[in-house]
Please model this.
Amino acid sequence: MTAHPTTGFTSPELQGRETALKPGYMSGFGNSFETEALEGALPVGMNSPQKINFGLYAEQLSGSPFTAPQATNQRSWLYRIRPSVKHSHRYAKVDKGFMRTGPCREDTDVALGQMRWSPVAIPDEALTFVTGLRTITTAGDSDTQVGMAAHLAFVTRSMGNEYFFNADGEYLVVAQEGHLRFRTEFGVIEFGPGEICVVPRGVIFKVELVDGPARAYVCENYGGQLTLPDRGPIGANCLANPRDFLTPVAAYEDVEEESFLYVKWGGELFMTKIEQSPLDVVAWHGNYAPYKYDLRRFAPVGALLFDHPDPSIFTVLTAPSETPGTANIDFVIFPDRWMVAENTFRPPWYHRNLMSEFMGLVYGVYDAKPEGFVPGGFSLHNQMMPHGPDMQAFEHASNVDLGPVKLSGTMAFMFETRFPQRVTKYAATLPELQDSYIDCWQGLKKHFDPNRREPK
Ligand SMILES: O=C(O)Cc1cc(O)ccc1O
Ligand SMILES: [Fe+2]
Model:
């Protein structure tokens, strides 16, 4: 496997070398990349010559309208053994299992309120990334390209001659247990707990296990692509830095055997049989491609003297809407960090929010919920539903001596959207749904005393 000579990112050369860059990846966010698995496969200076080296076909994959402004225009050119159109016969609708797509208003008896689930155990049955995808919430409408879905993915079996693409949105996959290998049209991405992988809408891939059964949280973005947030007065550095995003170098399969291509389109699942592997892209260039990111590379910026800033300072990626500052999705993390604020209630404040908040915990302890919110579990604080630290966290944070404290070994995250999130029937009927969640605030005491003044 060799990358394009001009990029310098050739995987064999990097193998075994102590380098910031992992073998097989190119660094940067939203770059115009170019990479070839066979030297000379990329046409030079043009996209579509009359004939292409090695008898390859040229194909454009557009992630934005052709006419999108330069800053949001996304497309890649793929040089492949056969064009994708040869990768499909007639599509047949197949059982979509527990996959749901917004708008989805399933009849559930679930009462309005704050919700939390214990981790759902990885099932014993054989599940691929496709059959093991279980939708927890949906928001907005995939047809109008607004909103999102939050899913759990259980993977107990690698996909062999099965491949998949999602026409309804892009996937942001947050590994929680076990490593996953995404073999995509663009190359191979391997990642595990603490890392994320983003697969843009329409990109064909299959998922393999690396070290045993895996569980992941997945955000499906129906809207415009996830991008880096503007840093404003923070300046040119910190938070998620572009160089830490890794896109794979080209890698292809030249496999002539019957394969099954699954397609999620319009909220339904379809399948078509093809005669060969669709991962036959020998070279590609462009800025529309999958990538991975290690969340531990996130450089947090926070309160240096007093008060608790809004969690938007921990935004890793954002999918903007047409309204400035009102995201279709913000992907926010709560990583290791020092707490140093003086005379401050340090955990999240009590709040009610226009945006709805789906949270998960990859590992460690979340400071607002030391009990009950455990790795692999998840919670939903929907539009305008009040929430905040549980009684135990409130009493502790209100009375503890405020020296510098490091929150270590922790990684919580939030999928935050401007839309209300509708809970699926699957999620509403899970035995892991915690009936007693709201009791965590029941013990909050009345401390009010008109004569009590805190010392200045
Ligand atoms: O609800 C939560 O736990 C997430 C959250 C964290 C925080 O520091 C401030 C606001 C917020 O919604
Ligand atoms: Fe919140």
Notes: The pocket of 2-(3,6-dihydroxyphenyl)acetic acid (ligand 1) is lined by residues 311, 348, 351, 357, 368, 381, 387, 414 (CB under 6 Å). The two ends are 66 Å apart (CA to CA). Residues 391-399 form the longest helix (9 residues). The CA atoms of residues 22 and 282 lie 20 Å apart.
